[in-house]
Write a structure and sequence with these properties.
This protein has 271 residues and is of the alpha/beta class. The protein contains ten helices and twelve strands. A six-stranded mixed β-sheet has the order 2-1-3-5-6-4, with helices on both faces. A six-stranded parallel β-sheet has the order 9-8-7-10-11-12, sandwiched between helices. α1 crosses α10, α4 crosses α5 and α4 packs across α9.
Length: 271
């Protein structure tokens, strides 16, 4: 019997590399399965969750903007998903859905691959959604000294910085043109291309980062990436989200199938 897996998001879901990546790895692992994208309207996310059981979906990924919205529809949450407050992986066991978060550990694995040790260092995180929550959690879990957060909604920034995911609360970042003494900048928003947000591109270009060692953009596949340009102009090392995606996919695949083919297999399909 063919197993059906899926990824749920808004219309941006059709730009995701996940369907091709998971389909290729399932074929290599000799698993009879297909992986398909589903665009869901915000008002119908509850119906989509119920449909996972009705349609006998074996497992699902959740991406922007629903990583937090799906939580009320889970029958159970993993410890990590509970602490972070965000779900990106769903495992179905008969008529029960359990939510997990592999974003956080995938980001941690990617930091290790990049050879960047967060302990005792300062970080600036852009974003307030599920991906940002996972990033903030891991940064604090890895004992970052200071975690600053900024985003378009001041209310959401305050909610995230007030939470204790991973330990002590993060801090509200003040981007007032003054130099920021941070060692890593992480973009956890969905914006990386100049056309997606000229305003954010301008803001990134104006950042004064005298001590920054790494700019990490969780997005990938942008032809013109202003985070990469900013890093190059300031002589800062840059990495995109492919390594993070491969590592979180590896963890998700293991939850769904009990098989861990390793991150390199996923990364190879992405490249």
């Amino acid at each position: 019997m063919t197993k059906v897996f899926c990824i749920l998001g808004d219309e941006r879901i059709f730009q995701s590399k996940s369907p091709d990546m998971f389909s290729a790895v399932m074929k290599q692992a000799d698993i009879n399965g297909v992986y398909v994208p589903f665009a869901v309207e915000p008002a119908r996310i509850g119906e989509a969750m119920r449909s996972l059981t009705v349609l006998n979906i074996a497992g699902a990924n959740v991406t922007v903007p629903y990583k937090e919205a799906v939580i009320p529809y889970m029958d159970e949450l993993s410890e990590g998903a509970t602490m972070i407050g965000s779900v990106n992986t769903i495992v179905r066991n008969r008529d029960r859905l359990k939510g997990y978060n592999t974003n956080a550990i995938g980001f941690m694995d990617a930091l290790e691959t990049a050879g960047f040790d967060v302990a005792g260092k300062s970080a600036l995180v852009f974003g307030t959604g599920g991906a940002a929550r996972a990033v903030v959690f891991i940064l604090k879990w890895l004992q970052a000294k200071v975690v600053l957060v900024t985003g378009r909604s001041e209310e959401k920034v305050r909610q995230l910085t007030a939470s204790r995911v991973g330990g002590e609360p993060a801090s509200l970042a003040s981007l007032n043109g003054q130099p920021l003494s941070v060692h890593i900048v992480v973009n956890a928003t969905s914006v990386s291309d100049y056309e997606e947000s000229p305003e954010m591109a301008e803001l990134a270009a104006k950042l004064e980062l005298p001590n920054c060692e790494l700019v990490f953009d969780l997005n990938y596949g942008r032809k013109k990436n202003f985070w990469a340009d900013m890093a190059q102009n300031k002589n800062i090392r840059f990495t995109d989200g492919l390594t993070s995606l491969a590592n979180q996919a590896r963890r998700t695949f293991a939850l769904w199938t009990g098989t861990d083919p390793g991150a390199e297999v996923f990364l190879k399909t992405l490249k």
